Every structure is written in C-alpha cells, then in structure tokens.
Amino acid sequence: MPTTVKTIATIGELADFTDFTNSRPNQPERVVTERRRYRTIWISDIHLGTRGCNADMLIDFLDHVDSETMYLVGDIIDGWRLKKKFYWPAAHNDVVWRLLKRARRGTRMIYIPGNHDEVFRQFSGLDFGGIAIRRKAIHETADGRRLLVLHGDEFDAITLAHRWLAHVGDTAYTALMVLNRWVNAFRRRFGMPYWSLSKHAKARVKNAVAFISHFEEVVAHAAGARGVDGVVCGHIHTAEIREIAGVNYYNDGDWVEGCTALVEHFDGRMEVLHWADEIAARAPDTIVALAA
Ligand SMILES: [Mn+2]
Question: Where are the bilayer-spanning segments (predicted)?
Fold first, then answer.
C-alpha cells in the first residue's frame, strides 16, 4: 500500500495565500457526502514544522468534520524548531490552507498561540484572514457553562518541578517521537493502523502520570479561582475530560502522538475524538482509498 510521500515543498508547489481564491492545496480536499457537524471543535499542539506532526491524519480529520466555532489552542506552528531547522512539507502547508479555508466558509475561528508559537502572541486582539488571535478566550457552551480557553504553558512556572514533558524539544521526548514514526511507518507498510508508542509509554511511566495529574489540578484550581465553570487547554499532549473540585477540566490532546480533538455537541455535551481509532474503524476499502 503506497504511503504519502513527505517532501519539502518548493515555493512553487505551495498554495499561494496571497491569491487565496485561486489557490489549491497539494492534497485536494476529500469530498465526503456530509461532514460531521459539531457546535465547537478545539485542536492544539499540531507542531507544524516538525517531523513529529501527523499532518496527514489532521488533514483527514479536517476533511471529515465541521463546526460553527473552532479554537486553535496553541502550538499550531512550532517556531522553536523551525528556527533551528526549516522543515515545511506540502502537507503542513495544506493544514494551514484548510484552516484559512474554514474561516472563509464562515466558521468562527479563534487562535490562541502557545509557547512554541508565542511569536504570534504579540498580535493578540487582531484578526488575520478571518482568524481572531487572542491570548485567551471565554467559551459559552450550549448548556450555559462558561469555559476558560488557554494553551496551558502559563502554569509551567508552577509545574516546573515535573516539566520533562512540558518542553517538546526535550531530547528523550524527541527520540521517542522518532521511534514513534519508525514504528508507524512499519505498521503502515503492513497495513496496520496508527499506534501511539509514546502515549503507551507515558501511561506506564510513574513520573509522567504524576506530572499530568498535577498539571490538571493546577489548571482546574486556577480556573475555579476565576469563577468559570471549566477550562479547555492543551500543552501537555494528553487529552482528558475530568471534573476536579467542581471544575470541568478539558484537554484537547495533540496531533503529534495522540491525534485527538475536543468537540462540543449541539446540546453542550463534550467529547474527545480519537482520530486514529476513527480511521481504523472505517471499512477496509475506505482506508486503502485514503492511503492511496
Ligand atoms: Mn505547548
């Protein structure tokens, strides 16, 4: 089964954002009979510009779902890594194209930069291409709850003692991501579905588990102190829906390992979508068609 070839795109191959109406993505948008609709979608920690980014899976996600509102909860583009080494395959450009296209189609788009794309924080309060850039936001759910939306690195100072995971640039983590890629290239080669190595490793490392629950508690308490009903964040690459001391804690996960999104249904019900599982659950012929 052929896999998507990832090459560095030349300028000529990239979609032209200055002439958006006539520009086309490298991978054409998939025509699905009807996109699954949600009231709200939150995604974060895409890390475009790094090899760890699962852009193909995110493209598949974006082509299958739609929403009235979409929050980009930080670390969308990895400015730290791009500065060290320029890496920008066509698929990464296609993600940006699809996000801009969504704004054009009328989805309310809010971009809250994280620590890896903090360079965009200076534009907080401004709108670019129909995407509002904000430092944080308050989201009101269909069932009337107020949720504070932020990236989550704001709490690094407090959770610093256990920050091995907080910085994606960390050597051990990067090595694990390389291994994750190899394992999945092998699995793809033999028609096996995507499997997150680091997700499984993290769940088994005691310190990682302690770090994650500490982070969740710190964030939930901070949100509770601000008088909101809940909080939506990203940053630690661990999707979760939890109630902590009367506060709803939501984390939308990431598109490096977990490939998850947080969604709000039209009745206010919240859910984490595990996109690798959704792809794996599709009819076999559909999977072949997508990979070809
Ligand atoms: Mn982050």
Answer: none
Q: Which domain holds residue 146?
A: 35-291
Indicate whether 7 belongs to any domain.
no
Task: Report how far ligand 1's centroid is from the alpha carbon of 117 (Å).
Answer: 8
Beta strand ranges found along the chain (DSSP E): 36-43, 65-72, 108-111, 127-128, 131-133, 137-140, 146-149, 230-233, 240-244, 247-251, 260-264, 270-274
Cα gap 100→93, rounded to integer Å? 11
Residues 78-107 pLDDT 10s = 998 888 888 999 999 999 999 999 999 999
Output the CA 234–ligand 1 centroid distance in Å: 7
pLDDT digits (tens, 9 = 90+) for 245-256: 999 999 999 999
Do the domain assignments include residue 15? no
At residue 162, the pLDDT reads: 46
Q: Tens digits of per-residue pLDDT, 177-208?
A: 777 888 888 888 888 888 877 677 666 666 66
| Report field, pTM of the whole predicted structure over 0.90 | no
* 22 falls within a domain: no
Distance CA 45, CA 74 (A): 6
How many independent structural domains does the chain possess? 1
- Which residues are 227's β-sheet partners? none
What are the φ/ψ torsions at residue 109 (nearest 5 degrees)? -110, 130
Measured in Å, residue 38 CA sits from the centre of ligand 1 at 25
Interval between CA 185 and ligand 1 midpoint (Å)? 26
